[in-house]
Amino acid sequence: MKISDAAAASGCHLETIRYYERVGLMPPPARTASGYRAYRPAEVERLRFISRGRELGFSLEEIRSLLRLDDDPKMSCGDVDAIARTHLADIRQRIDELQRMVMELERVIAQCAGGERECCTILHALRDTGIVSKRDVARRRV
Length: 142
Fold this sequence. Notes:
The protein is an all-alpha fold. The chain has helices at residues 3-10, 14-22, 41-55, 60-71, 77-111, 121-127, 134-141; strands at 30-31, 37-38. The chain is elongated.
């Protein structure tokens, strides 16, 4: 099938498919006599795998690892499980960080009385050098 058909069947955009080929997530497809890409059902299935991985927030490198594990019959589900558990822990950490941001923004917004810009509690909070950023914390660990 042509790239447009593979895109429709997999839910990926044409440029995304070409990108996955450039970065090695997809093997170079066969070509027709006229030079068009020709995709087999197995390649469309691989595109769906990649797409579903992206929907779950896996990075391209994590997906690359998962594809290698999927392609190797000697690998165990435990190897896949380790990647998924690490990814889940990362997601939970990001959720915690986002919840902290929500609480801080809610606090600052609740203090906002509107009015003059000079009295804006939101702008004052953004200027507050006493607030420790994630970047500051990372620098202290080094």
